[in-house]
Amino acid sequence: MANFYNDNEDLKFHLNHPLMKRIIELRERNYSDYEKYDYAPKNYEDAIDSYEKVMELAGEICADVIAPNAEQNDLQGHSIENDHLKYNPYAAEDYEALRKASCWGMTMERKYGGLNFGNVPYIMVGEMVSRGDGGFANFWGLQDCAETLAEFASDELKAEYLPKACNGATLSMVLTEPDAGSDLQSVQLKARQDENGQWYLNGVKRFITNGDADIQLVLARSEEGTTDGRGLSLFVYDKDKNCEVVRRVENKLGIHGSPTCEMVYKDAPARLVGDRKMGLIKYVMSLMYGARLGVGGQSVGIAEAAYREAYKYAQEREQFKKPIIKFPAVYQLLGNMNAKVKGMRSLLYETARFVDMSKILQEIQKERTLTPEERKELKYYKKMADAYTPLLKLFSSEWCNQITYDSLQIHGGSGFMKDFPIERMVRDARITTIYEGTSQLQVVASIKAVTTGVFAEKMAEYDAVLADAANLAAQKAKLLAMTEDYKKAVELATAPKDQDYLDFQARALVEMAGNIIISYLLLTDSLRDAKFLPVANNFLQLAYADNKQRFEYVANGKPEDLEGYRL
C-alpha cells in the first residue's frame, strides 16, 4: 500500500531533529503520564516510536483514501440542506478515516482523549493531508480551535468540548465578516447578555471555513458603543442549539474540498471563552502561530504533490524522441522546484520547533516557577516564534504558488486540462498567499525582526554551527557576503527615518533575510545527512542571485521614488 510518510525520507529526518528530545521531555513532563495511560510513552525512544506509528498510519490514509478522493471532492464541493451544511461523501469518508485512526485531537492532553503530541508531528500530518488534497487540509488545520479552548477556556468548557474535539467533532473559527476581513477590529456581530448572564449572538459572518461545524469559536462585539478590538470577545457556540443558518456556500476558484460559508446567527446562545474584551487582542492573535504554521504545512504539502506530478510527467512525456526530463530547461526547473520544496520544509519544521518550545514553556510556567535557564529559553523561543511564523507563511505560500505554476508549465497544455491533478493543485495553491494573513501582512509582521536585528542574530548562530565544517568553506563565504549585503540594505532602508519608505522596501529586506536563513538551514541539514548538500548548493546559487538583485533595488532607491508609485 502507498504511504505518504514512508515514501518521503525528509519527514522522518525532521521528526528526529536533535531538539525533539528536549521538546518531548518538556511536553511529557518527564513522562509523568506513563503510569496513568497505557499508550503514554515511558521515555524519548518510546515517544518517537509512537510518533512514527501515527505518522505511518496517517501516511497510509493520506495515500489510500484522501488522495484518491481528491478529484471528486473538488468536483462535487458541498451543499446546503435544511439551512445547514451537507458534506459530500468523499470529504465525509476522509474525515471518518482520520477519526477512526484517532488522529483528531493529536495535540490535546490525554485526559481529554488526545495523544499529547507537539506541533511538529501535527503539522507533519497536515503536510501529508495537503499533499493528498489541499482543499480537505483545511478540515485538519481547524484543530487549532481546540488548541485555543485548551489554552484559554475555563476548566468547565474544556471538560465539555475537548473530548468531543478529540472524538472527531467538526470545528470552525468564525471571525470574518462582509466588512471585516484583515481588519478584524471592525467586527460587528453582536453579543448581548441577558439578566441571567446568558450570552446571545446576532449577525452575519462570511468566508468561514467549515462554517457549520459542531463546535464554533465566534468573535463578536460584546461591549456596547465600542468600535475597535477592545470591544470584542470570543465565544463558543454549539451547533446543537440550532440557532444559526448557512445562507450560502461560496463558489470558489479552488479548495473546493473544504466548504466556505456565509452564516447568520439569530439569538444563538453562546458561552464566553476566557475574559471579556480579550477576543481579538489576546485569543485570536495567539491563533496566528497555529494559523501560519498550518498554512505553511498546507503549502509544503501542495508543493510536494505538484513537484512529484511534474517529475513523473517529465519522465513519461517524450518530445523529439526523448523524455522531456532530459532537456536542461526542464531538469533545471525541476531542480529548482525540488530545492525550494526542501527549503520550505526545513523552514516549516524549524518554525514548528520554535513554537513548540515557546508554548510548552508557557504552559509549564502556569504550573510552576521556571528555572533561570528555562526563563532564558522561553524568552529566546518566543522571540524566534514571533519572527519565524510570518516568514514561514510568506515564503511557503509564495513558493507553493510558484511551484504549482512551474509544474503546470512542465505539463504543457495537458496541465491546463482537468485530466491531470496539477490543474486542481494550481487552483488550491492560490488561496495560500491570501488567507490567514496576506503576504503583504506577513511582511509587515516580519519587518520588526529585520529592524531589531533578530534575523541577523539568528544568521550568526547558524554560521557558528557551520564553523567546523571545512567542506562548506565556499558556501559559508558566499553566505557571509549575502549577510553583509543584507545588513547594508537594512542600513540604507532605515537611514532616512521615513516609515513609508521602510515599508516600501520591507519586502525586499524580508525576502533577503529569508533566502539567507533557508540557505543556512539546508546547509545545517547537510551536516546530519549529506543528501541535502547538492540541494543546498542549488538553493544557495538561486538565493545569492536573488539577493543581489534585491540589494541593488534597495541600494538604488530613495524616499522620493515613492511619488512615482502613489496613485
* Distance N to C terminus: 57 Å
Helix content: 55-70%
Overall SS class = alpha+beta
Report the total helices.
17
Strand content: 5-15%
Low-confidence stretches: none
Specify Rg, calculated over alpha carbons. 24 Å
CATH class of the domain at 450-564: Mainly Alpha
Number of strands: 11
Shape: globular
> Considering the protein shown, what is the CATH homologous superfamily of the domain at 450-564?
Acyl-CoA dehydrogenase, C-terminal domain
Explain the layout of strands and helices.
Elements: H1 9-15, H2 19-27, H3 44-76, E1 79-81, E2 84-86, H4 89-100, H5 119-132, H6 137-141, H7 144-152, H8 155-166, E3 171-174, E4 190-193, E5 199-209, E6 215-221, E7 232-238, E8 244-249, E9 260-273, H9 279-316, E10 318-319, E11 322-323, H10 328-367, H11 372-411, H12 421-430, H13 439-451, H14 454-465, H15 473-494, H16 499-528, H17 532-555
Helix pairs in contact: 2-10, 3-4, 3-5, 5-9, 5-10, 7-9, 9-10, 9-11, 9-12, 10-11, 10-16, 10-17, 11-12, 11-13, 13-16, 14-16, 15-16, 15-17, 16-17
Structure description:
With 567 residues, this protein is α+β, with helices and mostly antiparallel strands. Among the domains are: 169-276, Butyryl-CoA Dehydrogenase, subunit A, domain 2, CATH 2.40.110.10; 450-564, Four Helix Bundle (Hemerythrin (Met), subunit A) (Up-down Bundle), CATH 1.20.120. Helices cover 58% and strands 11% of the residues. Strands 3, 4, 5, 6, 7, 8 and 9 form a 7-stranded mixed β-sheet that branches. It has a two-stranded antiparallel ribbon with strand order 1-2. Helix 10 (328-367) runs antiparallel to helix 11 and helix 15 runs antiparallel to helix 16 (499-528). The longest helix is centred in the middle third of the chain and has 40 residues, at 328-367. The protein is globular and about 70 Å long.
